[in-house]
Amino acid sequence: MRYPSAIPNLVAVLVATGTPTATLAADWYTGAPTDVGADEYIVAIDAAATVTSNSSAFGVVTATIAPVTPLNESGPRLRLQGLSGVYSYPGSTSGRTVRGQQEEGTAMFGYEWIWKQAALAGYVGFNVRSNELSVLDPNNPVAGTGVGAKFAADLYLNPTLETLVAANASYSTLFHAYYVRVKAGFAVADGVFVGPEATLLGDAYFNQWRVGAHLTGFTVGPMKFSLGAGYAHDRVQKGGYYTSVEGRAAF
Q1: Which of 19, 61, 113, 250 is within CB 3.0–4.6 Å of 44 for a Cys-Cys bond?
Q2: Which residues form the domain of 159?
Q3: What is the pLDDT of residues 184-230, one digit of tens each?
Q4: How many distinct structural domains can be found in the chain?
């Protein structure tokens, strides 16, 4: 998304990542390049990957489309998203390792409000999720394929030109999956921010929290990137670590 020039360069990307039967809703919020110029983009493509030491690896691609006005102006939005990943965890009854494979598709429609140093978006739609387990786990109710209603919200703020606050939240009626991520940052270069981040995610079987740090907004070629790393703790595998990389291109 491109916002007015008062908002510094950044990519404050939010992603839900692979953890055993987690929400894996993989929504994120992305900030904007500074100089709009003649580039009034209408499509933004975000890609992200996260690996945890808790035996999981997930990737996601999201397209945000502005069908009426450019992304740097308030208007309706269409969001399409695809997620895929693998994970494993110790079975709750057999003691055998359960290996899972998850795919999810999401389609949502919403509206984004753009101000001089802030942006707020809300979405509503549906998601389809397939979660296959290698071993039957009777205590895990989130296996199989289903469809649910999904809701999401994104918030981006520049309290000052040297600081940022970004937040994302989503909820699906399918397995009561939820995801919340908040990050703050301080500018270390033009449009590049460093700071803490925290994430809470879960569903009817699983929950996890993460605390870490991010480097957001650096550019490689035509894309902007964000890196994150930190500590993760979940109900099944307990303590571990996560790393993530996220990127955005707009046209």
Answers
A1: 250
A2: 43-250
A3: 999 999 889 999 999 998 888 888 899 999 999 999 988 999 999 99
A4: 1
